[in-house]
Amino acid sequence: MSAKTYEVRTYGCQMNVHDSERLSGLLEDAGYVRAPEGTAEGDADVVVFNTCAVRENADNKLYGNLGRLAPMKTKRPGMQIAVGGCLAQKDRDTIVKRAPWVDVVFGTHNIGKLPVLLERARIQEEAQVEIAESLEAFPSTLPTRRESAYAAWVSISVGCNNTCTFCIVPALRGKEEDRRPGDILAEVETLVSEGVSEITLLGQNVNAYGSDLGDREAFSKLLRACGEIEGLERVRFTSPHPRDFTDDVIAAMAETPNVMPQLHMPLQSGSDTVLKAMRRSYRQERFLGIIEKVRAAMPDAAISTDIIVGFPGETEEDFEQTMHVVREARFANAFTFQYSKRPGTPAADMEGQIPKEVVQARYERLVALQEEISWSENKKQVGRTLEVMVAEGEGRKDGATHRLSGRAPDNRLVHFTKPEQPVRPGDVVTVEITYAAPHHLLAEGPTTGVRRTRAGDAWEKRTAAPAEKAGVMLGLPGIGAPAPLPAPTSGCSIV
User: Which helix (H) or strand (E) holds 460?
Assistant: First the structure.
């Protein structure tokens, strides 16, 4: 009898991506195998939706997908559907009322229960809804199906202590809980021993790390400790909060060679009035002061941000303050969002909701300004020689252009001419930048150096292994390749 197949569909922020790798590991530990690439919708035996609850269309997207699966499940009685993540934590019993063909609903705190709940639903022939109110097991202690041999997420905390009026995440993910530094470093060392050369420290408010431990400098100490791990070439982190971004963190970044010159610092608004209404605990002057200190310590740092346009009560003058900060900060890129009203957040009931057409017009002006700045900042890279870590799946047109793609130390995407000698994801090439576009760089000349790495060896070994065994570790910490700062679609990233 062949093993049952599964598919995990992920929506939302980096934390959801991280959780989905755990869900895949749990299912494979329980005997399921991943549905092959190209499997038709509805053909997997188990379909898991790991949901986001923050964007306005999150509900519609989920129920639309569930609706398409309903007739497919009717034709395949053994098929099971599970819904987890933030929307499941929020809606609970509502999901099986609206979509009674769903078999399992589980929350953000009990992802480790998925295989048990699926089996219970099968035996009892009724939906299982189990939502824990507090964390049952830190995700990094669960089995995983790592998506990469060379790059990994490492979760250092879960939850958030902030009370931003636009964000529902603290209610769904709970208060911040920090992992012990020794556990984090042990996980990093395990990953490096398996060939991982790049890690991204992950938390909903990553640089608040230590508040649960009673150590205000715990995050900077953690960065410096990562710098002592032999074989770890690149360290990144996401997403920090300006409130907790202290000078000791800037010093640790600048003084630790393997901490990359890259910073994602959410702005949300440049208006002090709007920031106060958002319940953000910093103001424009404080934010620009952080940017100035980072640039003084790391002149080549690439800084990105999140911005919300059209928050309730935002005036034209408020919006111009945001445009002013964008001009002053000169972000390498910005993830811009039109304000999305979410039930359960204070902002949803605020007066002064902005008409859609006004929000759209402001959004377009902001995007145009940031595109101009991004292109200008990227042009400064032309002529520079950069070390690029070869990536897998970053360049959608690589096959047609005969190029490869990867990330520079500052996380800029670089497409480069394929060298004569073979290179693998995780290897490092040295290239000279010849052209800049707003969202990527080109190195059209010959590659001047290729460094084969342990990470490339690990990728080669991984791809030669049987697909059903790839990357599964039973009980050992390990995580998959972090997408380099994907546009956040949930409050988990928009902090």
Answer: helix 454-464
The 10 Å Cβ neighbour count of residue 357 is 8
DSSP 8-state assignment for residue 241: -
Radius of gyration of the chain, Cα coordinates, nearest whole angstrom? 23
Quick count: other Cβ atoms within 10 Å of Cβ 309?
A: 24
Cis previous bond, 239, omega within 30: yes
Pairing of strands 413-417, 441-443: parallel
pTM (two decimals):
0.85
pLDDT digits (tens, 9 = 90+) for 157-193: 988 899 899 987 777 778 889 999 999 999 999 999 9
Least Cα distance to 344 among 16, 12, 88, 90 occurs for 90
Give the CB-side neighbour count of residue 134, counting CA atoms within 13 A.
3
List the single range of 136-140, 145-149, 172-176, 471-475 with lowest mean pLDDT: 471-475
435-436 and 441-443 beta bridge pairing: antiparallel
Nearest to 361 by CA among 326, 305, 304, 314: 314
**What is the per-residue pLDDT across 389-441, written as a single tens digit (0 to 9) for each?**
999 988 878 878 889 999 999 999 999 999 999 999 999 999 999 999 999 99
**How far is the C-alpha of 150 from the C-alpha of 222, rounded, in Å?**
21
Rounded Cα distance between 255 and 297, Å, is 9
Distance of alpha carbon 52 from alpha carbon 88, whole angstroms: 9
Kind and range of the H or E run holding 20: helix 14-29
